[in-house]
Amino acid sequence: MQDRLNAASHLQHLGRLFSETVLIEIDGQEFYLTFGEGRLESIVEGPSRKTPWRFALRIDAQALTAFWAPFPEPGFHDIFGLVKIGRGRIDGDILTLVKNLRFFKEFMALAREGVPA
Question: Would 70 be classed as within a structural domain?
């Protein structure tokens, strides 16, 4: 995803004001993604009680696989769709997420197979 983000200049422009750490939890396994001005600086595997994060996306692995399908089914097409169907949860500073919503949603969709960066 880091290579695809680096190749997507429009995403770097969208995220130029986004410098935060985000927690992605997949089936209880934690990953801390640190962004600096729209670039992915690091991914650190958790768990860690010492790593501060701004908001978290908690999801199960099957839902994430369905989200990353080239043409996801309804409900799996969007992070808020995952929350609506009960397959995901968003915690933390929702305002930071909403301020950077397009950047984060498009970043998460970068792993979709067959979708150009």
Answer: yes
Domain-embedded: residue 117: no
Domain presence at residue 115: no
Distance CA 34, CA 20 (A): 6
67-84 confidence digits (pLDDT tens): 999 999 999 999 999 999
Mean pLDDT within 46-56:
91
What is the strand order of the sheet 39-45 is part of?
Answer: 39-45, 29-36, 21-26, 55-59, 88-92
77, 39 Cβ separation under 8 angstroms: no
Counting the structural domains of the chain, the total is 1
Q: pLDDT, tens digit, for every residue of 95-112?
A: 999 999 999 999 999 988
Angle formed at CA 54 by CA 84 and CA 99, multiple of 5 degrees: 65
CB 26 within 8 A of CB 60: yes
- pTM for the structure as a whole: 0.88
CA triple 52-25-69, angle to 5 deg: 135
Let me know if residue 26 belongs to a domain: yes
